[in-house]
Amino acid sequence: MDRSTLRHRGSNRYEIGADARPGMHVPAIVFADEELLGAMTEGQSLTQLTNVATLPGVYRHVCGMPDMHEGYGFPVGGVAATAMPDGVVSPGGVGFDINCGVRLLSSRIDYAGIRARAESLVEETARSISAGIGKKDGLHLSDDELDRVMVEGSGYAVRRRGLGFEADLEHTESRGCLRNADPRHVSNRARERGADQLGTMGSGNHFIEFQWVDEVYDEEAAAAMGLHEGVVTVLIHSGSRGFGHQICTDYVRRLDRSLRSYGITLPDRQLSCAPASSEDGKAYLAAMACAANYAWANRQAMGHQVRKILARVCKVQASQITVVYDVAHNIAKIEEHDGVKLCVHRKGATRAFAAGHPELPADYRSIGQPVFIPGSMGTRSYVLAADPPAMRLSFGSTCHGAGRSHSRTAVKQMVTGSAVRKRLEEQGIVVRCPSNQGLAEEAPEAYKDVDRVVDVVVGAGLARRVARLRPFGVVKG
């Protein structure tokens, strides 16, 4: 899209007017600096964002985060809300990896004291948790057990399997469970794919990263989160595996077939949708909630396994390793903003509710929701806290990571996996990945500069820095 269509509207904020192209109902807001904006204009993400602005019932504006890049239908890094009951829900606005998200664990373990055990930590984690395309070896679930996972989410892992503590649920978005889940709307094929993948990581950009806190910016917020300079943390990135992918596939097809019956015309068929209050819309939201709950149970199971490994290797009590927070990156949720009931799509974006929001746990209600921004492999990650302007500017949302700048195919032509492995080892980072190809696809060259992305969201007032995390070990899918 031509740069001339973007108007500067404030600190790190640009607008594409609703008159920029036919069919737009609302403007598009883009959070970026000049360099990030330049990269966006070279791809299709801005065009995709303006396509989203044509959806029936879209409310106020659509948003593009600084890590935005091209996706299926919606751009990755896109946020859009539609007004209930007539506004639509779109599977492309959630993505195929439903509730892909991140969980951060904190500890009282001093990194300096366990540095020599880094290789043991990474090795044991890699052996214990399956990774890669189609890898199974997770918890084997009967049909009844899978139903419980879909309905109970993280609570299933904690209460029925003993994989964690009640406090973990308090520090999980929506307590790890969407209440509108209904297994009757999930296909047999999705059930087959989900039966033995719970507790597994998956491939692509999914990871388990061992880190330590190398800088604290906000002492009060960091203390509330249990983050102190020098302590070990673990960041876990995974989603709903093949289960969620199949649910998205099923409903993209179903909603594409039903479009005509709702009289909806779209600029891109990848935006297939249905009114959220229709039978099709309610069925998708119920199935999506099943996948979201599966993903939360998945990260709960993995997180507790990692907690036990860390406790054993470092000779501490597992109860001393706590969940800072767990947040979804790909989800649609019914929320109220400006007194209006909305279906908020976040695709490659993190919920970021400001201090005082009733959905936040009591110990975070005075500081704002924790937000985690992973860097590219081998670079630092950030912990942020949501700030009040996010509620007005982005429906309580912010970015979710560094964001891709090059496709997997392109980056494999730029660097080899063996070179990436060597570079990480030279930085003192222990890495385990099933293949060098997988390492090449996720090389730092594939991603934007996470420092720049964080500068933008902080400058725009969406969140503030709390702490910075430096990696010392990583297990990749």
Explain this structure.
The structure is a single chain. The chain is an alpha+beta fold. It folds into two domains: 421 residues, tRNA-splicing ligase RtcB, CATH 3.90.1860.10; 40 residues, no CATH class. Helix content is 33%, strand content 24%. Strands 7, 8, 9, 11, 15, 16, 18 and 19 form an eight-stranded mixed sheet that branches. Strands 1-2-3-4-5-13-12 form a seven-stranded mixed sheet, sandwiched between helices. It has a two-stranded antiparallel sheet with strand order 6-10. A hairpin with a 2-residue loop joins strand 1 and strand 2. Helix 5 crosses helix 6 and helix 10 packs antiparallel against helix 11. The model has no long low-confidence stretch (mean pLDDT 94).
Tags for this model:
tRNA-splicing ligase RtcB; single chain; 477 residues; 8-stranded mixed sheet; alpha+beta; 2 domains; 7-stranded mixed sheet; 16 helices
Which regions have little confidence, pLDDT < 50, spanning 5+ residues? none
- Report the C-alpha radius of gyration, rounded: 21 Å
**What is the number of E strands?**
19
- Calculate the terminal CA-CA distance, rounded to whole Å: 34 Å
CATH topology of the largest domain: tRNA-splicing ligase RtcB
The CATH class of the largest domain turns out to be Alpha Beta
| Helical residues, percent | 25-40%
Write the CATH homologous superfamily of the largest domain: tRNA-splicing ligase RtcB
Shape: globular
Integer tally of domains? 2
Specify the biggest β-sheet: 8 strands, mixed
Secondary structure tally, helices: 16
Percent in strands: 15-25%
Mean pLDDT: 94
CATH architecture grouping of the largest domain? Alpha-Beta Complex
Look at the helices and sheets and give the structural class: alpha+beta
